[in-house]
Amino acid sequence: MSEIRIPVSDVKPGTAVRLDVTAGGVCLVRIEDSFYAIGDRCSHANVSLSEGQIDPDERWIECWKHGSAFSLEDGQPQSLPAVAPVPVYEVVVEGDEVVVRY
Ligand code: FES
Question: What is the C-alpha to C-alpha distance for residues 51 and 17, in angstroms, rounded to an integer?
């Protein structure tokens, strides 16, 4: 397993960033002080989920292309047209760094 460390301050609350560490990339999301890491490539087509809309209440991110929302907790699509989940990665905060393992 590999990991990447980035400063917590590099990810503003309520935003998502793409980490180009895997073939499809990792979508790292911050909601307040909680972090989530899922596969960045939408399972419906080759679209970057980190460019989508975050729903902080549901803990979802919505693909901008056709509107499928994916759970940040388990990667499952919550709405069509996507039917397949995206990967979920381990993410922890250690001091002032956020660590994503993939
Ligand atoms: S490309 Fe994401 S829902 Fe179609």
Answer: 8
pLDDT in tens, 9-64: 999 999 999 999 999 999 999 999 999 999 999 999 999 999 999 999 999 999 99
Atom number of ligand 1 nearest to Cα 64 = 2
Q: Which residues contact 20 (CB under 8 A, 6 or more apart)?
A: none
For domain 3-101, say whether CATH 3.90.1150.10 is its number.
Answer: no
Domains of the chain, residue spans? 3-101
Closest CA to 25 of 7, 37, 8: 37
| Ligand 1 centroid to residue 54 C-alpha, Å | 15
Report how far residue 5's alpha carbon sits from residue 48's, in angstroms, rounded to the nearest whole number: 21
Angle at 65 between CA 60 and CA 69, to 5 degrees: 20
Answer yes or no: are the C-beta atoms of 37 and 28 closer than 8 Å. yes
